[in-house]
Every structure is written in structure tokens, then in C-alpha cells.
Amino acid sequence: MSELFLVAHVAGRGVAIAATQVESVVDIGEIVAVPRAEAFVRGLAALRSRVVTVIDTGTALGLAPTPDDVRRAVITIFEGHHYAILVDSVEDVAPSERLPLSSGMALHRGWASAGIGIVERDGEPLLILDLAAIISATALAA
User: Taking the complete model, does pTM exceed 0.85, yes or no?
Assistant: First the structure.
């Protein structure tokens, strides 16, 4: 059965995000740092009269930090709070069939906990990211 996925790039890698987890895709303006927040919390930003917590996706996945000039973000709601998940770029929204992760697929660092399946796009597998897994419980304190 086919479902809609947002195709994006995170840390230079093509990924798919279930459309059901995406409220919108935006360009974030000024980000205000939060003292003593976890390293993956880039800060807070104003978005349509609400405050969102901005997540540095690279750091959250245990990779290199997302470059400071990256402002494109996927807005998601987790436990009633809005989060902006930084992405390198967004390509498209496309229907695809969700496939399980193969046992031979080696995922390292945060990819292993955030990856929940794959979709094929133009014959190439894309890891499906679970945005809720990227947002850890300690981020809720921000």
C-alpha cells in the first residue's frame, strides 16, 4: 500500500519522512540560543505567532552539526509541542511503498535509532526517518 513521503536531505543523505509527521516545511528566521539546552537543541524560533524548538538534526543523529546557514526545516508536532527539524534541502512529496529495513543494512549512530524503513526512489533506497525518534525526551525541557 502506497503512502506519501517528503523526500529531503539530512547530513548529505537522501531520506524520506512520512507526510503524516509533517505539518509544514519552512525557512526558519532568527534562532535564539537556549542556555543549558542539550547540544542538539539549536534554539528557539518564532513561527506564525508560536515558538518552535529548533533541532540540529546532524547533532541529534550523532553526526557533524548542521551548518549554521541551514534554515530549511520540517515542522512536526511531538507530544503537543512544535519542533523545527533542520534539513539540508527538500526535494518532493511522492507516494511510495514502505519497505522494512533489510537485516543486512548497517546503520550507524543515530541513523540506527531514527531509521524505521526504506522507500525506493528512482531505484535508490531512501531511509525513512522517524522524526519522533530524533526528538529525545530531554528536548522537551527547551
Answer: yes
